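Async update (no meeting this week)

Hi team, since we skipped the sync, here's where things stand on the single-chain job. The sequence we agreed to prioritize is pasted below, unchanged from the tracker. I ran it this morning and attached the output directly underneath so nobody has to dig for it. Comments welcome in thread, and please keep replies under the output.
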Amino acid sequence: MQKITPFLWFDNQLEDAVEFYTSIFRNARVKDMRRGPEGKLFTATFELEGQQFMGLNGGPHFKFSEAISFFVRCADQAEVDYYWDCLIEGGTPQQCDWLKDRYGVAWQIIPDALMRYLGDPDPAKAGRVQQAMMRMVKIDVAELEAAAAG
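Output:
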């Protein structure tokens, strides 16, 4: 059993959000859905790539912000493109491969190459990659590689 579970407060879109997220991630499943007396979904537990989440239809009192985001590691550009294109539908792009999805949840779609280059022991190479990243919205692995090469 997972010790710590992210708990997401939705206005009234929980059922749609669970369907949306579980349709995007290949290793996803709904674990539990609890409805209130009127039959409307009240809480749900779902899993994305082994990470359990809980959601609540809590009403309009609280909104998501970039203070919390979900970091999705991607093996290559194709995976970056897949997750970006799916999650951005109805959402808003942001700088450095961040996006807010249609519910306002913040995501970072990050290729392994970016983390590898930013951690390079050569500070000049890491700096060039960081500067290239700062000019991007969706990360372009080929541009990162060009920046790393100088």
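Quick observations from my side:
The chain has a mean pLDDT of 97.
Residues 23 and 29 are 9 Å apart (CA to CA).
Reply here if anything looks off.
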